[in-house]
Write a structure and sequence with these properties.
Helix content: 25-40%
Number of domains: 3
Membrane topology: Single-pass type I membrane protein
Region (Disordered): 257-279
Strand content: 25-35%
Keywords: Glycoprotein, Membrane, Signal, Transmembrane, Transmembrane helix
Distance between the termini: 73 Å
Strand order of the largest sheet: 1-2-3-4-10-11-16
Transmembrane segments: 298-320
Shape: flat
Radius of gyration: 41 Å
Structural class: alpha+beta
Biased composition (Polar residues): 257-266
Number of strands: 16
């Protein structure tokens, strides 16, 4: 990105920042994204050029305070380097005029493939609308004007000149804004912004946020007095160096084979079809849309929620599978607190009374019975184990069917 030494009026609005692309075009927007070739470009010949294919390929620029010139010298197509090298340039004048010059065009540009990179010759401008949806910032780009040139007439020793025309932005008061008569656009005065515009330009978001759609003035009879609120001629209008509010059109003149032929009054080359080199003004409202959503915060939030859910689920599963751990005991206590009062008030002789205890200490019961069985075989007591249990203070009926003291200790 290059900072110009002068204000270049692009579509009538002064800009300073110009981004030079090796793909044969200049980007005039302030928001750098992955779709630079879609909108907001000045393209003498936009194509899939690659300067790394040759040591003789260069992209040069010069700023003398009055003009800014960029030259793409000996650049080759990335997918077809055998077609030869291209040399062409773009010059931005302080007056707003733009000149495309073509020195070496080895092939017909209609033969350049556009499957991997767009091929364009012309201008484009757009505005950006910022929105916040579910805490996610979203940028939407709307192309509102485009100038296309016929590819067939771009060849060696060709010049394409675009002359900047008066725009709505150049009028600084309501009366002069309303008196402007243009065949391609109608100027509107916004008293809250003290700005003359078509309402659709790079400052479209400011136009909407300031309520210009509701307070706009379209008749000179309702203009406030000059110098009063809403029509202050002396009030400075905000001008950004980021390349924003623009309105207007360009008039172009094409000269082909300058050493052999001239141009006619319309600016088209003599004998050339007017359709090929005509300026296609595209009032493409809400077209060329591009969504640039910064969804990092939303993604982080979703990941955090998923991690919390998985962690809680894993802990519950671990506590359920391992009741002897602290987590398992905590889960058991929570389960007991969740028992209904009716279940807690059941009589000890009720058939369902023992179910929670047997369910909670089932593993301990199985381990104790196994221990008693092996101890019974080793000590020579009878298979009923009555003597052993008698000495231990336990009864088989107590252990098997009732919550005895030993079982209660195991449960705790």
């Amino acid at each position: 990105t290059v900072l110009l030494t002068f204000d270049f009026p692009y579509y009538g609005f002064p800009i300073r920042n110009i981004t030079i692309a090796t793909g044969g075009f200049l980007y005039t927007g302030d928001y750098v994204h992955s779709w630079l070739a879609s909108t907001q470009y000045i393209a003498p010949l936009m194509a899939n050029f690659d300067t790394s294919l040759s040591t003789n390929s260069f992209v040069k620029f010069r700023d003398d305070g009055e003009t800014f010139t960029v030259v793409w010298e000996n650049v080759s197509l990335q997918d077809r380097p055998e077609n030869g090298s291209f040399t062409f340039s773009a010059t931005l004048n302080k007056s707003g005029d733009i000149v495309f010059a073509y020195k070496t065009i080895p092939i017909d540009i209609q033969q350049i493939y556009d499957d991997k990179h767009p091929v364009k010759v012309g201008l484009s401008d757009a505005y950006i609308i910022d929105k916040t949806i579910f805490r996610t910032k979203q940028k939407t780009i709307y192309e509102y004007h485009r100038v296309n040139f016929g590819r067939s007439k771009v060849q060696n020793d060709t010049l394409i000149t675009l002359y900047a025309q008066p725009t709505c932005f150049s009028y600084k008061d309501c009366q002069s804004c309303m008196n402007h008569e243009g065949s391609d656009f109608k100027c509107i005065w916004c008293p809250t912004l003290n700005r003359c515009s078509t309402g659709v330009d790079r400052k479209r978001q400011d136009w909407i946020q300031k309520g210009c759609d509701k307070t706009q003035i379209m008749e000179i009879s309702v203009c406030p007095a000059l110098g009063s609120k809403g029509n202050n001629y002396g009030e400075p209008v905000e001008i950004s160096t980021e390349g924003n509010d623009t309105n207007g059109t360009y008039r172009h003149e094409t000269e082909i084979q300058l050493s052999k032929s001239g141009t006619n009054k319309s600016g088209a080359p003599a004998g050339a079809a007017s359709h090929d080199d005509s300026v296609n003004r595209v009032p493409a409202f809400h077209t060329g849309m591009e969504h640039e959503s910064s969804s990092s915060s939303l993604l982080v939030t979703v990941l955090v929620i998923c991690c919390l859910v998985l962690t809680c689920g894993g802990w519950v599963l671990y506590a359920y599978r391992n009741p002897h751990t602290k987590s398992g005991q905590l889960l058991i206590r929570y389960h007991r607190r969740q028992q209904s009062p009716l279940q807690q008030q059941r009589h000890p002789q009720h058939p369902d009374y023992h179910r929670p205890l047997l369910h909670l200490v089932g593993h301990e019961e199985e381990r104790l019975l196994s221990y008693l069985y092996h101890l019974d075989e080793a000590s020579g007591f009878g298979p009923d184990g009555g003597d052993l249990l008698a000495g231990s203070g336990l009864e088989v009926s107590d252990y098997s069917f009732a919550p005895s003291a030993a079982a209660a200790d195991l449960g705790d």
